[in-house]
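for the writeup, i need someone to sanity check this before i put it in the appendix. the sequnce is what the collaborator sent (i think, or maybe the updated version? ugh). structure was predicted straight from it, no edits. if anything looks off just tell me and ill rerun, i have time this weekend
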Amino acid sequence: MTLPADFLFYSDFNCPFCFALSERLLVMGEAGNVHWRGIQHMPAAASHDASLADQTQLINEVSVVRKRAPEINIVTPGFRPNTAPANRLLMNLEAQDPKAQSHLRTLVYRAYWQEGRDISDPDVLAELCEAAGLTFPGLELTEAGETLLARWQQEWEGGRFQRRLPAMISRAQDKPLLGFPTFDLLAGFFAGSALPIAPESLAACELKPRQVVLLVGQGIGERCNTTELEAAYEIVTVADPEAADRWMKGQSCLPDMLVLDALSLGGDAFAYCTLLRQDARHRQTSIILLLQGADSEQELAAFDAGATDVMFDLTHPKVCQARLDLQLRATRSTALLASLARLDHLTELPNRREYDRKLEEEWLRASRTGTSLSVILIDIDHFKAYNDHYGHARGDDCLRQVAKAMARTLRRPADLLARYGGEEFVVLLPETLPRGGRKVAQALAEAVRELQLPHAHASCADHVTVSIGVATGVPKRQGAPRELTEQADAALYRAKKDGRDRIREA
């Protein structure tokens, strides 16, 4: 099979980052230069089996796309479909009209990410085929087709891509680009300029499907038998902390677990553990110290250094699997709980807890740099009357629509829109002067007006509106982060007192 395109794109229809990148390729006019290779990010995914963990991951991924690509229209589907049928369909259509096939690929992506349809359903795929002007060929593949899809899957699952999506590669220069890139990085990639292989800032998936275990120590493979773990996890072995640092520097993702062999590393194992814990990126990493034997002093020293746990004999593969897998599952559970704790599931926005955390972080940073910080508080006008008249189901839908409309107005990755409580929202704008805060507030108010959601019991308009309070200041070390929120709240109170559907500044 000839591949005229210069660039290969390993993509999955149920990945929002692949969808967003495909939309950007269309805008840039580069879609024709790309040969698409359909793979499966989550082969076990099924539209009829949507767990809380899957839905939380979906919400997190969509929120990242909205933040990094606000120009792209995307909704959060209620499930993650199996994409094997769509991949088989595109494979069967390989020899038909390339332009119509490219259109069909876009229709499949949009059917799922904009309409929430089940693209694993053959009837849906047949309908999309008809819309693209193509004859539905069925979903049965030849042996050669199945072999090719399997080869693409194996290529993507190999170490080169670290199972990341999106994954593109320049065939001419043998150069990969992983993660969700900016327009500038994409343009540079197509132009052949030098790029970082996989910068951490382009990380796509919040929850990696295959966790990485990094074994550190000369001969640690003999003391830590990971045979039973190799199918489920990526196992990497290096000789010493310096080699571990070099390996991590060259990767797009940090390891989920480090096992440090105190027998071969000696005191360096404890020192390296302490060093890792001082790095904010490793605060949640599971670090195991593998000691020579039971020794209470060494165990205490290991925990003082920041070790998650200490172990002694992992030479038996089943014992090694049981002990390390327990820690890795705990890491996954912690990540899920952290996501749940930060998220408001109704609006899919960060919640009050996450806003307070981010405010404190930005307040401290601004107090060091002497830059200004803006806070915007938003209240939906007469929302109790809206709920009483239209019902709480319509009220929930109103909150969701208002949240999405306001989220589309934010352009910078550092800007944060969160649900503050009830019908109130809050926006945090780092490095923003009063003029900038006012401009964003006006855009927020206009986005809600443009929804034209009917509101029969509002005193200020016949549709849903918002009142807004804005506060801007240069934080001082001796001050408290809540001061700025309190000033914005006072301005919001004035906006409501003055008749609602307006903006007031502190």
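Residues 258 and 433 are 44 Å apart (CA to CA). The first helix runs from residue 16 to 28.
thx in advance!!
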